[in-house]
Write a structure and sequence with these properties.
single chain
Length: 208
């Protein structure tokens, strides 16, 4: 297999303003070769042998970035905004051959071809505001947004033949499973000192 991982971080601050960013990218490739013989012993019967030849390969690519901005209006008020995004691209393919033997002769041959792909995209954003109060309390306001997509598709084709190459059966499976979600969230928190403890209160609203 082979792997590649790259990432970078950037940060800058001047007076009341600061900005930061993160970028990342990675790839991964894997192979799998399996040859297997299975023998099943039968009472008063000749043994049955199943020969398997599996060849698989999959690839994954990941990318992510994050960008954020903070601004301090004064010693009491701070505002920030952040965007996060990530993508995943996954693909796999396989070739599978199974020979069924009875009494040392091949009864049938099953050949299967399979492919699958999965695309995942995630985008989120956050806006936050922190307001410190004269009574040693503070108010935190957060607004969040999430857009998530997961698109998966798979194809599977099988073919069964006799020892002489005569067709015994064919089958296929084609599936497509999309999933999309959008979530919006707003939250306000209030904290302050009360007597010898802390008083907290909050309100949260979520829509999806």
């Amino acid at each position: 297999y082979s792997k590649i991982n790259n990432s970078g971080i950037f940060s800058y601050k001047q007076n009341k303003f600061s900005i930061f960013a993160l970028l990342g990218y990675s790839t991964d490739k894997n192979y799998s070769y399996v040859d297997r013989n299975r023998e099943f012993s039968m009472i008063n019967e000749n043994s049955i042998v199943m020969q398997q030849f599996n060849r698989e390969e999959n690839k994954t690519k990941n990318a992510v970035y994050k960008i954020g901005i903070d601004y301090n209006f004064n010693k009491f008020t701070t505002m920030g905004f952040t965007i996060n995004s990530s993508t995943v691209r996954y693909k796999e393919g396989g070739n599978y051959i199974v020979n069924f033997k009875h009494d040392s002769d091949i009864d049938s041959i099953l050949t299967t071809l399979s492919t699958m792909g999965r695309d995942i995209d995630k985008l989120s954003a956050n806006f936050n505001l922190n307001q410190k109060l004269p009574n040693e309390g503070e108010i935190n306001i957060n607004f969040d947004y999430l857009n998530y997509k997961n698109l998966t598709d798979q194809t599977l084709f099988g073919n069964t033949e006799s020892q002489q190459g005569l067709p015994l059966g064919k089958y296929s499976l084609i599936s497509n499973n999309p999933f999309v979600a959008k979530v919006r969230n707003g939250k306000v928190d209030y904290d302050t000192k009360l007597l010898k403890g802390t008083f907290s209160a909050g309100l949260q609203i979520t829509n999806s």
